[in-house]
Amino acid sequence: MPDTAAGPTVAVDDQSIAAAGEVVGFIDLGTNSVRLLLVRILTDHAVETITEQKEMVRLGDNVYGDKVLRPDAMDRALSVCREFAELARGTAADVDAAVRAARAASQGNWGRMAAADRGRLLRRWADAVEAHRDELAQIESQDTGKPLKQARADAAALARYFEFYAGAADKLHGQTIPYAEGYTVLTLREPHGVTGHIIPWNYPMQIFGRSVGAALAAGNACVVKPAEDACLSLLRVASLAASVGFPPGVLNIVTGLGAEAGQALADHPGIDHLSFTGSPDTGRRVAIAAAAHHCPVTLELGGKSPQIVFDDADLDAALPVLVNAIIQNAGQTCSAGSRVLVAAPLYETVLERLAERFAALRAGPASMDLDLGPLINRRQQQRVWDFLSDAQADGVPLAAQGEIVDDAPAEGCYQAPVLLRDVPADHRLWQDEVFGPVLAVRPFDDEDEAVASANGTKYGLVAGVWTRDGARQLRLARRLEAGQVFVNNYGAGGGVELPFGGVKASGHGREKGFEALYAFTRLKTVALRHG
Ligand code: NAD
What is the CA(200)–ligand 1 centre distance, in A? Predict the structure, then answer.
C-alpha cells in the first residue's frame, strides 16, 4: 500500500492507486471495461466526513481488502460517521473524459450490440452481484452505517434490478400506427446515447441498480457520479461489470464532490439524459444546468409521505408497517412514511400502540444489526436535531422515543427514533422532509380532511391508506397526490417492477419497471409513403 503522503503515484498494473493532492487515476481493470477515477477529496466538506484515516481505496479483486475496511476501521467508521476512506475527487476534465469514453462506446460495439446480448450481460452482472452479495452488503453497511440486514436487502434488490432489466432488454418495442391510405407509420425506441446518473448516499446500490440497469438495458452508455458520502459499493459493483464482460467505456464512474464532478456532469453538453436522485435544491440546480443544453431529466427528490389510518383499519397489520416505514435506513429514505393521519376514534389507541413499539426500538452500530444504524454524517444529524429542537420549542408533544444502545460510541451520529403527536399541519415537522427517524402523527375527523391534510405539503412521492372499505380504497387511490399509492401495505417490499417517482416537489419522470426503459429511450416516428 503506497504512502498517501508521498506524492502522486498511479499504478494501473497492480490495479491500485495512490493519490496526493488532486491526482486522478484511470483504472482499466484489465479489460478496460470500467473506468474508475480516484483522487483524494481535500475540501472542508470532505474533511468533515472523511478525515484522518489515510488508507486508500484499492481497485481490482482486492478493492475492499483489509487495508480499508478492516474490522476496527469499521467500528471506528461507525463511531465517527464513516471517517475511514479516502476517495477520488473527480474534476470537470474527468467527467469530460468519461463522457467521451461513453460516447465512443455508444457509437461503437455497444451501440451495435443486439438487445438480447445486452440482456445477457446484465444477467451475468446480476449473477455476479448475487455471488458477491455478502461482500457488497458488508461494504454498503460499513460505508453508510446501515444495519447489515438492510444492506443485504439492498444487495438483493440490486441483483433483482439487473435481472429484471436483463429480461426486459429485448422486449422494448416500437409500434405501427394506422394512418392515411398509402402510408406505413412506425415508431422506433432508440437509446439517448450517453446518460448521466447522479446517485445519493442513502441507498447507493438500489438507486444505481434502478437507474443504470434500465439505462444500459435500453442501450445507453453511462457516466455515474455517486455521492461523496457513500460510493464504495458502487466501485465494487462496477468492477463486477468489468469481470462479466461489459465492453470498454460502457460504464464510467466518477467519484467526487457534488459541486464539482456532479455539477460538471449536469453541465456537460455530451450528456443526452440525466437522472438525479437527491435533495430538491440540488435537483433544481441540476435541472437548470441540464436545460442549458436541452437535456431531459428525471428527478427523484424525496417526500413527506403520509399514511392514513381509517377507523376500519386492520391495526395489527398496519402498526408494524407504520413503524418500519419511518425507521428503515434510520429514516433516510425518500419514500419514508414520515406522517401518519389517524381517524379520531382510533387516535389514542394507535398512539399508545405506536408508542409501545417506538420505546422498544434501538439504534447502534451497523455491526450490531439493530433496528437503526447511525445517520450518514454530522450534517444530517444536525438537521434532525434542528427539527427536534423546533418541535420542543413549539410545544409539540413527544409521545415516545427509542434508545441508543450503551455500546454505541458517544461521538457517533446516532439518533433514537422519535414519535411526535398532535403535530400542527403548518409546522415544519408536518411540512418538510426531516430525513431522519422522526414520525409526526395527527388525528382527522373525516375523509375530506384526511385527503386535504395528506395532500397539503409541497411533496407527493408515496402515500399509504389503511381501510377495509373497497370504495374508499379506490377513491383515495385517485384523490391522493403521489406517484405511488399503497392500500393496506406500504412500499410493496420495494417492487423493482413498479414505476416509481413523484409529483410536485418530489420530482418528475419515473424510474423502475418498464417506465424507466421508456425514460431512457427516445421515440422516433418513421412515416413511409409507398402509395
Ligand atoms: P444532495 O442532493 O446534495 O446530493 C445528492 C447527489 O447530488 C450527490 O451525489 C451529490 O454529490 C450530488 N450533488 C450535490 N451538489 C450537486 C450539484 N451542484 N450538481 C450536481 N450534483 C450535485 O443531497 P445531500 O446534501 O447529500 O442530502 C441533503 C438532503 O437531500 C437530505 O437531507 C435529504 O432531504 C435529501 N436526500 C434525498 C434523497 C432521496 O432519495 N430523495 C437522497 C439523499 C438525500
Answer: 6
Query: Distance between CA 452 and CA 430 in Å, rounded?
Result: 13
As a three-state string, the secondary structure of 273-311 is EEEEECCHHHHHHHHHHHHCCCCCEEEECCCCCEEEECC
Cell of 323: 413503524
Residues 196-250: tens digit of each pLDDT: 999 999 999 999 999 999 999 999 999 999 887 788 888 888 878 878 888 878 8
Are 109 and 46 within 8 A, CB to CB?
Answer: no
Closest atom of ligand 1 relative to the 302 alpha carbon:
41
The whole-model pTM stands at 0.87
Residue type, position 45, single letter: H
Residue 339 has a CB neighbour count (10 Å cut-off) of 28
3-state helix, strand, coil in the chain (%, to 5): 45, 20, 35
Distance CA 438, CA 459 (A): 17
The dihedral through the CA atoms of 136, 147, 261, 522 has a sign that is positive
What atom in ligand 1 is closest to the CA of residue 229?
A: 26
Q: Does residue 43 contact residue 258 with C-beta atoms inside 8 Å?
A: no
Substitution site in 82, 89, 282, 332 for ligand 1 pocket (most atoms within 8 Å of beta carbon): 282
222 noted as active-site residue: no
Tens-digit pLDDT profile for residues 347-402: 999 999 999 999 999 998 888 899 999 888 778 888 999 999 999 999 999 999 99
- Cβ atoms 230, 201 nearer than 8 A: yes
Residue 384 three-state SS: helix
Q: Which of 35, 31, 33 is nearest to 10 (CA)?
A: 35
Under a CB-based contact definition with an 8 Å cutoff, are residues 255 and 89 in contact?
yes
Cell numbers for 286, please give them. Answer: 441540476
